[in-house]
Design brief:
- By secondary structure, the protein is of the alpha/beta class.
- The chain starts with 5 loop residues before the first strand and ends in a 9-residue tail after the last strand.
């Protein structure tokens, strides 16, 4: 199914969070996940989120009769997600950098908003900002390696979507969306972007990008 390259949505979370999480509520809305799942997946398809956050992708997938599957680094967030899922074992508390070490099934679709990083940030987003980082370039390398590990788990027609924005800060703009397109595009085939216009967003912008990838073509095959 053809997709529009620009969509307009309201940035309103689908469900309230417990008080202890509300100050860190950077979820995308249920409507964004539903938009893609209704167009690119079918009931029974496995939907994977390697950075599950507060579980939006998994909860929407479950509500639409897809099979949720996710990883979340932060222990408290992972525990919360499990209380919300009908299938709590669908969420693994773990580290996406070691994705290949988990016994994960193949999946039909992946959607996430990865932990953001600006140039010069001192902490590592992939540890839920709890450890000192190795720099922006190392973060991009880690993201590339995560998606390289994902290649073998993608079913032939699977799509991978990353919702991400460029970031305006006091020291200028970090082109995070474009840099992640390049990093992940080194291991998956980049199909293009869908721009999402929001009524409110943050990071100095009123829009973000849904970057779309598919499995790289295997030499000697037709798809």
């Amino acid at each position: 199914m053809d997709m529009r390259t620009f969509i307009q949505l309201t940035n309103a979370p689908g469900r309230p969070l417990p008080v202890e999480f509300q100050a860190d509520d950077v979820r995308y809305p249920d409507s964004l996940v539903a938009y893609f799942l209704e167009r690119w997946t079918r009931p029974g398809d496995v939907v994977f989120d390697p950075f599950a956050g507060f579980g939006t992708t998994l909860l929407v997938a479950e509500a639409l009769d897809r099979v949720p599957l996710g990883l979340e680094y932060d222990y408290a967030r992972a525990a919360y997600i499990r209380t919300q899922l009908r299938q709590p074992d669908a969420l693994i508390q773990g580290d996406a950098r070691h994705l290949a070490s988990y016994d994960l099934p193949s999946f039909d679709f992946s959607m996430t908003s990865p932990p953001y990083m600006q140039r010069g940030d001192p902490t590592d987003p992939l540890t839920a900002y709890t450890e000192r980082g190795r720099g922006y370039s190392a973060y991009l390398d880690d993201m590339r390696d995560i998606y390289a590990q994902m290649v073998s788990l993608l079913k032939p027609d699977a799509r991978v979507v990353l919702e991400v924005a460029n970031l305006k800060g006091p020291k200028g703009v970090t082109p995070l969306a474009w840099d992640l397109a390049g990093a992940v595009g080194a291991v998956l085939r980049f199909e293009g972007e869908i721009v999402v216009g929001w009524d409110r967003y943050g990071y100095g912008y009123d829009h973000s990008y849904c970057l779309v990838f598919v499995r790289p073509e295997v030499e000697g095959t037709s798809g």
